Amino acid sequence: MNKIKLYLAFIALTALFACENDPFYFNSEARLRMEGPEVWTLGTDSLEFSFANYSSTVTDTTFDITVYVMGEAADQARTAEFEIDPSLSTAETNMYSFPEMVTIPTGELSVNLPVTVKRTESLQTTQVQLYIKIKENADFKIGVTEQNHLLLKWSDILSKPNNWDDLEEFFGVYSLTKYRFIIDVLNTGEFDTDTLSWAQMKNYQIELAEALRLYNEANPGNPLADENGNLITF
């Protein structure tokens, strides 16, 4: 009988230890954890994004961060709060926006936290980051360390595609100004010549040449030139 009691005690202690080390164990206190969009942050606590391959008409983008309750649903609405860690953030306040407080409705176990990052001229030369973390309040404690925050990094740094040698037949000599014009017109900066046919690439060239003609007509005496002063051609 004593052996059985010892065995049961061992099992109980083992189960308790396992629960305390479970990343979603909440010690009977409601806690919060957060996850970024799976396509951007799968398996990590950070999100990295570039505006570079998007048309210049795109001035911001919003990421939906999911905030989960580690505990049971409540019979009243609760408030989740967030704050920035300034020591781990470099983005200026005009570069982002998000609600510092969201409400988790009655009976719900998650809520969306929309975080908008903005495109500014300075991003063409530097990457910035924003460290958002859960703030403890009367409704919630902070959850597991790995998921009590999210680090967002973004920039607008454009770089020459690795396959430009294949694109030169259609787009000509590379320049930063030309590449940005291509992205603005075609709304993409990615051209996989292994999957795009010669005809498709030729159509892109024709579309770009026409867009350039219209641009130059709309700007008489000031045709589009690149950063080196050379006229853009296709």
Question: What would you note in describing this structure?
Answer:
This protein has 234 residues and is of the alpha+beta class. It folds into two domains: 24-155, Immunoglobulin-like; 164-218, no CATH class. The protein contains five helices and ten strands. Strands 5-7-3-1-9 form a five-stranded mixed β-sheet, with no helix packed on it. It has a five-stranded mixed β-sheet with strand order 2-10-8-4-6, with no helix packed on it. α4 (176-186) crosses α5 (198-218). The radius of gyration is 26 Å and the shape is elongated. The relative contact order is 0.15. Mean pLDDT is 89; it is low at 3-25.
The appropriate CATH architecture of the largest domain is: Sandwich
Distance between the termini: 89 Å
**CATH topology category name of the largest domain:** Immunoglobulin-like
Query: What is the helix fraction of residues, given as a range?
Result: 25-40%
- Lateral strand order in the biggest sheet: 5-7-3-1-9
Let me know the number of strands. 10
SS-based class: alpha+beta
Strand fraction: 25-35%
- Output the number of helix runs: 5
Whole-number radius of gyration?
26 Å
Question: Class of the largest domain, according to the CATH hierarchy?
Answer: Mainly Beta
Q: What shape does the CA trace take?
A: elongated
Mean pLDDT: 89
* Largest sheet geometry: 5 strands, mixed
Q: Spell out the CATH superfamily of the largest domain.
A: hypothetical protein (bacova_03559)
**Domain count:** 2
* Topology as a string of helices (H) and strands (E): HEHEEEEEEEEEHHH
- Show unreliable segments: 3-25
